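Final report, results section. Input specification for complex C-07:
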Amino acid sequence: MKNTVYIISGPAGVGKSTTSQTLVQEFEKSAYISGDDISHIPVKGRGLPWLDQESLDLIWNNILSLTSNLLDYGFDVVIDYVTFPSEAAWLAEKLKHRDIKVVYVVLLVDDETIVQRDRLRPEEHQMGERSLILLHEFERDGSLSDLNKLYTHHYSVDQLPEIIKEIIHNEKYLVRL
Amino acid sequence: MKNTVYIISGPAGVGKSTTSQTLVQEFEKSAYISGDDISHIPVKGRGLPWLDQESLDLIWNNILSLTSNLLDYGFDVVIDYVTFPSEAAWLAEKLKHRDIKVVYVVLLVDDETIVQRDRLRPEEHQMGERSLILLHEFERDGSLSDLNKLYTHHYSVDQLPEIIKEIIHNEKYLVRL
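Structure output:
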């Protein structure tokens, strides 16, 4: 079977980490890349990735390098990061010489749900307005195909296995170059 | 000034993380790579790095890729990991086409100190015997030059700035190929 790179995207607070960390357990040999962790490797002199293109480029180059190495060693890879369609396409393009699949899922919920979920987080992790702004940024992004969107507010927490199945088995999420 | 890659090594419990995280603050544009964090990117199907050569190779390839990208973007890099002389030499060799410096410091203490420090850690982070075994492994390693050893048990905690100065300014720690 072909190795697969899963890009689990969506606004902050939508459940990317929980989904990714459950997904990564589904395979025999698999790795989990947290884009947030990668973004914190630069300590001094780094910009904010959502404001500074050079910082964002470095993050994506680092994610690409790790993904390439992991594929070389036979791992499926789950990437957990706020990823826009152009970034998913860039990554898929960089990997296209390999006989692998790239899956791009943008987790989304309605406005009410994202605000509620943000309030349930420990205060120091609450995103406030930024969750909602990011949600709208994804929804308004004309380059994001409906095929890659996965609305999860109709699922309850104990239905996570169904979301995982959907991500693994529904071919509509495949990036086609 | 040339960019520098600092490899901060030594057995578990010797103060690598504290030293590295203080060191990384000394530069204008610098990054911190935790080898332990990198070793946890593979989730399923990974071996223990101290038992499994393939797992260890992947970790070092990942550290090399991140370091190369960071150097491309003008960062000094601090690598915090249990690194043996052959691994430091491998990394320096892979980076030798670049106009940079590689510094390799193996932090060491006496037996008594490492046992004491291990006991001061939260129980779930205590290494027990393994700290001492690793310490002896470094001390017995014939390929480890005395030049790269930095014994720290004569320093008190508030002398960390002196250790940092020593690492930055004493050229004896430079890897020469």
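Chain A has a mean pLDDT of 94. The radius of gyration of chain A is 16 Å. This concludes the modelling results for the funded period.
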